What does this fold into?
Amino acid sequence: MIRIENITKRYGDSAVVDGVSMNIERNSITVIVGTSGSGKSTLLRMINRLVEPSQGRVLIDEKDTASEPAHLLRRRIGYAIQGHGLFPHRSIAQNIATVPRLLEWPEARIDARVTELLEIFQLDPGVFAHKFPHQLSGGQQQRVGVARALAAEPAVLLMDEPFGALDPVIRAKAQDDLLDIQRRFGTTIVLVTHDIDEAFRLGDQVAVMSHGKVLQCDRPAALLTQPADPLVTLMTGSADRALRLLSLTSAGEAAIPGATAGISVAASASLRDVLSDLVWRGADAANVLDTEGRPRGHLTVAAILSHGRSR
Amino acid sequence: MPGIAVILRLTALGLLTAFLLTPQSFAPVFAPFTQYGAPPIYDQGNLLSLALSHLGTVCLAAAASTLVAVSLGILVTRGSGAEFLPLSRSLVNLGQTFPPVAILALAVPLVGFGEKPTLIALFAYGLLPIFENTLIGLQTCPPALLEAASGMGMSARQRLMSVELPLAMPLILEGVRLSLVINVGTATIGSTVAAKGLGEVIIAGLLSNNTAFILQGGLVTGLMAILLYDAMSAIERRMFKAARID
It folds into this structure.
């Protein structure tokens, strides 16, 4: 859906982003991960042209993004940033309505959309619509920030460290919510973070950046099993890579036929969590049940461990 | 305590209104300040109409200052106008440092006596606080908000109108308030070039050695300045209470 072709951004003599090419599939989450100064935010901002590339181009649905005025392009692309960037002088409802207003939606449609989004993000419209940003907690502000970015039903959502300012508990919840939202709307998401755990948790595809170049852009499991660069190994961490790999496969995917006389685990749980559960309870096998409680097969410790091996 | 402050202000407003509507009822208060049976209350013109035209001159000058200072502030904070910042600053500073009396003296030969030279002097004198506050307000707008605004597809103009100016508004209004209050006092000098205002009362007092007149002119001007300041503050508080922009 988004094709980045050999894009470069130079400030003076130094290239902040250096000849990056990347393909982003529709309905997927791509996470760009890197240390500060790696050029990841600049790369993201070249997609909606907050930064104009020095060279190369970005195509969305095969259409060159440079072919229309930047502010019109941006109205079709959701944008959420760290610390939410909510307008302090506007109510929550007005904040969320920003892009629909720019697009001159009819008032009734704007109201309906604001109410819908507040409900999706578990913010009671009756309570929150007329509050101002400073009256909300950090987690609530962040949710409003994402709701605002999604208001005009964009096909693409860009997020620049959206959860950076949240404490770990709220952050995990926000990440789960984002996955739900992505499944619900089928939005194509490009997210920038410096947190490799976040990248593994959210990304269908993870791009590791360093010094303006993408070292590797691949499925998370491939980053662990076939790292293209020593820096990728360094960033993904080698000490717990087996466990990280287990966390990328769900019990449902790994279940083998048959049943066992053991404990039960949910099909949606990751192998890492199932293993932890088995160790904790001193069991060596578990039945896998789907959300309706129907058996989906079983898992043994040996079967789980085989998924954590480098291939 | 806010209770006492409100009562004080209402009392001041009541006294001012009463004095302007029925000045003669205050004759006994001012009588001790006169000598040789001179009139204790200004009698060469209607005090109420003098006060109103005084206020009118000040407000008109402030409106012009605001328009020019805010426009300049916007211009020099845009990328394209940044190079005019030093020049604008110098001009505005000159307006403040050049004595209003001197501006009057220079303006009279050009525009004649009366209201006009006073308006020019007050306009120039009132630019600085509004310009500087507009500048600070626009320059200190959080970068994250500007980025969010641009990132969502606001044009430069939309961003200015719906994010930057509303956020800078408390500071801009504070500048307008300062400018107004300074000029309520400064406007008294306009009477030296025949502008209608409360300066007349003071000058009449100086010419006829009548302390009561000087006191009346001074007190009415001072009370007007204080009340104007309070009224503006109250309006600002009301406007920004809900959103708490700070």
